[in-house]
Design goal:
Oligomer: single chain
CATH superfamily of the largest domain: Metal-dependent hydrolases
CATH class of the largest domain: Alpha Beta
Shape: globular
Number of domains: 2
CATH architecture of the largest domain: Alpha-Beta Barrel
Structural class: alpha/beta
Strand content: 5-15%
Distance between the termini: 9 Å
Radius of gyration: 18 Å
Number of helices: 9
Length: about 280
Amino acid sequence: MLVDLHTHSNCSDGTLTPAELVSCAAAAGVNLLALTDHDTVAGLHEAQAAADECAITLVPGVEISAAWRAQAIHVLGLWIDPAAPALQTHLAAQADLRRERMRKICARLGKLGLPGEKLLNIVQAFPGVPTRAHLAHALVAVGAVDSPDAAFRKYLGKGKPAHIAAEWPALEEVVGWITACGGVAALAHPARYSLSSGARSKLVGDFAAAGGAALEVVSGANGNQHVDVCAALAMAGGLKGSVGSDFHDPQHSWNPLGRSLKLPEGITPIWRSYGL
């Protein structure tokens, strides 16, 4: 069975509609797919309809931004109830945080001599919740940079002139939101955070103590060395394993849907808890 439990549609910062995403996953041979857009479940209804047609098992999911020791952390909510009123309320608050942050960033870009108001209008024209990825594309559109990566290197990345840190809710709060709506919390791409090995171990420990169930052992374009580190973290924390491409765009060759996402020996797959 080919499993991919971390993907994005254009309801957040992906380029494909939810239906297109599901169709591409089916073509890639994925059997078990989660749509985990950033801080929104808006695409799940369309994705489920497409999954029914493609005979794919869809896991309702979301990727929620959280904070741990002033570090932005992403938590995947898998097998959630997207209609749960409390979750809807929390995600609406997350969307408000994103919109306010975007206004502040665009205002700062305006002070740097760029067309801040125009950039904000371009971002607001995208479907779904606003992200810095949308703003990076807007900066390309107005000719400020040559590529989205350049936008982060020059303006949007940490320590750059237009960077504004988001004030996300605490990690334990976000894990609580997920478990309260019947879902399981999985720590996304743990090797990607700028943390020492000791801090990364502490993060995993705090996540498990808060009720986290799984760790994304295989993620995106991570190499074997990252998989080994993440597998050790999962075992030390008593966590099950998850796998996900973190797919955003078919033009990105480094994280295609379902890319050989196999857990190492000794790691219990989180989907086994659901008889899959």
